[in-house]
Amino acid sequence: MIRVLLADDQSLVRAGFKALLDAQRDIEVAGEAADGEEALRKVRDLRPDVVLMDIRMPVLDGLEATRRITEDAGQQDVKVVMLTTFELDEYVFEAIRSGASGFLVKDTEPDELLRAVRAVVEGDALLSPGVTRRLIAEFAARSKEPAVAQSLAELTEREREVMALVGIGLSNDEIARRLVVSPLTAKTHVSRTMVKLGARDRAQLVVLAYESGLVRPGWLG
Length: 221
Fold this sequence. Notes:
This is Response regulator. This protein is of the alpha/beta class. The protein has ten helices and five strands. It starts with a strand and ends in a 10-residue tail after the last helix.
């Protein structure tokens, strides 16, 4: 059972998400929070698998709450998915750097929300498919000049290739087709790359791909 914490200051939004999630056999809403401070307390008390975190909340915003959750060594297994009203919210870039596993716009289709919750638990989620490439392009444009990353020296040539494909927003299935390998093999390469680089998930792998210069703006086509 996937346990989800809903953190949003709008009760109507929480109610809608709760009705959808609780109707699934493999998902349950473990709790709700109306601000960032309450979300931190609920994460410590309830130990959810996933937090759906609104970016703009009173008392403590979702960005700072996410940073505190992901920096806590005791909460490394908790995945945070940011919720935003706009597809390219200015805070999304910092949220991903802060450890968020991705983000979803609030008007995401129900099926996509469910897919995202399930996928993020498996370490497969990044961003809403409809905005992935636009967001990555914008992130790349805002990034600083790439620095030489010594850690990339630990990667094999194939792992660097896979990391670059993750960096331009390809899913495991798309990577498998591009490299003519099985989806399982692609997933294994992605997992090994994350382990070697100490990346929390695919979102951080994308950040590293750009910050290391392995992927550069303009490669999205």
